[in-house]
Automatic annotation (TrEMBL):
GO molecular function: DNA binding
Keywords annotated in UniProt: DNA-binding, Transcription, Transcription regulation
Pfam families reported in the protein's UniProt record: TetR_C_13, TetR_N
Presence of keyword Protease: no
Residue span(s) of domain HTH tetR-type: 5-65
Protein name: TetR/AcrR family transcriptional regulator
InterPro entries documented for this protein: Homeodomain-like_sf, HTH_TetR, Tet_transcr_reg_TetR-rel_C_sf, TetR_C
Amino acid sequence: MAPHTDSRDRLLVAAIDLIRTKGYEGTRVDDVCAAAGVSKGSFFHHFKSKEALARAAAQRFAELAGALFAGAAFHREATPRARLIGYIDFRIQMIAGELAAFTCLHGMLSQETFATHPGLAEASGTHIRAHAATLVPDIRAARAEHAPHADWSAESLALHIQAVIQGSFVLAKSQHDPEVAAESLRHLRRYLVHLFGGDT
């Protein structure tokens, strides 16, 4: 990897870690440079501003998350319902360690910057909606099999699932307790089991 590309990657990794830990406003360019081990001149070679860095970090986070979820074992479940429940189980398993290690960069940026940097918030929201869209085919198929007369759409349920997940992270942070998030997702799991019927 070329040195200039390597320094850009280090800046993105540092930005993801720092913003998830300290928030967007609490993360300074100097902090990112120090964590990445690069000069401020190198920073401005790659990014014209902190917001530009955050946008690129959000894109990188989406790519990393996309690869993680695409390779997860729940995709090998035999039925759409089982894959959807497996997705929730996978999200619960991810809740471990420090809060910043499992919470969502996109959710943080959407919450923190919606008034001050609306373009950044919208970009982050776009990533959340794109992730929600990956659940739609299985939700649609499970709905057709288990709840064909339901008055809700697969798209709306996919977004509701993300709303619960993001909200669980907020509650966990407010109480400094990852278990709060895990319990919220267990409630979500029970709701989906009830919605689509069958064994837990």
